[in-house]
């Protein structure tokens, strides 16, 4: 058996076989994990939060990407800005709470005080010649895509974010995410490398046998299938589904809701995919009874039966937008074998808990699905540690988007490491 545990990253990238899983060190090696953090998470646009996390001036939220801590704040002009969460005096962490509301940003160590624009306002005992203008907080690139917040830690972020934004804005705008609130959020630590979490999300080959709550309103045909293995009834169902997708796309787009598939998962630096898909039967939303979880609909929607828009971004997010609520997912690597999955449920900002929506009903499907997926990711992580592990082939019918995620990852790492 070929020993890959000591194979250099450059060689592993060069011999990656398209259509197959990555080799084990990509999931287990601390050295490759460090390269991932430097190459992927320090240089690309990372989905981190939503504008609803900081609804009012002075509201802030802290995001940790590896060893880099960033504070996102709503300033007095209602702009969303981001700074490295490091005091310019002696490097103390500036904001300690995940979410808080402040008048100014005040360091707890020596009370250096910064305005919401990051400028240093006050630093006692620094002498007559100390220039506060030279000691403001260091800015971080931040972009809002219709209320979805992305950070880039690089000095020069990828310019093609604008391409994604131009294409995605018409899809997202009808949901009016800037006028939502976070009804519930949860963090879960998955026992697997961040790439396994992402790969698991990029297919539904596993869904029918593992996600009974999620699959109630979803068409099996939407997961992908092998046409040559269908019987006559299966072919008729597949044809019905294809017609339903086409008909719904036409109707939704005529109503001002762009729906047709846009896919740039492995041909852009800022890779993404989107499509609005119908839900089965009379389903309205991702809930246990498939009915709308919130009576107050989002944005321009007046019909709860408007399908579900999905939006995926490389390297770390996926999202589901219905007429009544939205769910966002962000993956943050912890170490080579653990990842944090952060999930947020958004409803209309004026929706009243207990009147317009019930939190338990709102979150039930994805709480269950996240827990199930975490277990599955753990199975794969355990397997990757085995000396018997070797990359297996992806299904060309149900795992083609996993392959595109790996293509994107290998391409970005290759560009950086010269394989």
From TrEMBL:
InterPro entries in alphabetical order = Rieske_2Fe-2S, Rieske_2Fe-2S_sf, Ring_hydroxy_dOase_asu_C_dom, Rng_hydr_dOase-A
CDD domains from the entry?
Answer: RHO_alpha_C_GbcA-like (cd08884), Rieske_RO_Alpha_N (cd03469)
Q: Which residues form a coiled coil?
A: none
Q: Report which gene this protein is encoded by.
A: nagAc
The entry's protein name is Naphthalene 1,2-dioxygenase subunit alpha
- Name the cofactor(s): Fe cation
This protein's species is Methylobrevis pamukkalensis
Among PANTHER family, the record links this protein to: CHOLINE MONOOXYGENASE, CHLOROPLASTIC (PTHR43756)
Query: Does the keyword Metal-binding feature in the UniProt annotation?
Result: yes
């Amino acid at each position: 058996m070929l020993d890959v545990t000591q194979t250099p990253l450059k060689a592993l990238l060069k011999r990656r076989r398209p259509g197959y899983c990555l080799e084990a060190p990509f999931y287990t090696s601390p050295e490759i994990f460090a390269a991932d953090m430097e190459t992927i998470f320090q240089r690309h646009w990372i989905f981190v939060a939503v504008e609803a996390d900081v609804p009012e001036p002075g509201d802030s939220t802290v995001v940790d990407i590896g060893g880099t801590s960033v504070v996102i704040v709503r300033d007095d002009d209602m702009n969303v800005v981001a700074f490295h969460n490091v005091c310019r005096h002696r490097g103390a962490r500036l904001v300690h709470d995940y979410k808080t509301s402040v008048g100014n940003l005040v360091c707890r160590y020596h009370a250096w005080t910064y305005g919401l624009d990051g400028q240093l306002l006050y630093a006692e005992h620094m002498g007559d010649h100390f220039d506060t203008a030279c000691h403001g907080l260091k800015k971080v690139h931040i972009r809002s895509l219709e209320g979805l917040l992305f950070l880039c830690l690089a000095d020069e972020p990828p310019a093609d974010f604008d391409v994604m934004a131009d294409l995605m804005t018409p899809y997202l705008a009808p949901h009016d995410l800037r006028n939502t609130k976070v009804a519930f959020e949860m963090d879960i630590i998955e026992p697997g490398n961040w790439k396994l979490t992402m790969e698991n999300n990029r297919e539904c080959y596993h869904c029918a046998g593992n996600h009974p709550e999620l699959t109630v309103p979803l068409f099996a045909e939407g997961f992908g299938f092998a046409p040559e293995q269908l019987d006559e009834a299966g072919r008729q169902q597949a044809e019905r589904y294809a017609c339903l997708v086409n008909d719904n796309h036409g109707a939704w787009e005529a109503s001002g809701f762009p729906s047709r598939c846009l896919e740039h998962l492995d041909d852009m630096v800022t890779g993404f995919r989107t499509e609005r898909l119908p839900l089965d039967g009379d389903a309205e939303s991702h809930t246990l009874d498939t009915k709308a979880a919130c009576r107050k609909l989002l944005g321009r929607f007046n019909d709860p039966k408007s399908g579900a828009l999905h939006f995926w971004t490389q390297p770390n997010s996926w999202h589901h937008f219905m007429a009544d609520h939205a769910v966002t997912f962000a993956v943050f690597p912890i170490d080579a074998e653990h990842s944090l999955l952060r999930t947020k449920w958004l409803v209309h900002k004026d929706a009243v808990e207990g009147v317009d929506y019930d939190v338990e009903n709102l979150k039930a499907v994805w709480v269950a699905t996240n827990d199930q997926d975490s277990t599955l990711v753990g199975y794969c992580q355990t397997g990757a540690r085995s000396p018997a592990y070797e990359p297996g082939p992806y299904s060309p019918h149900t795992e083609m988007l996993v392959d595109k995620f790996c293509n994107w990852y290998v391409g970005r790492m290759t560009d950086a490491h010269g394989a």
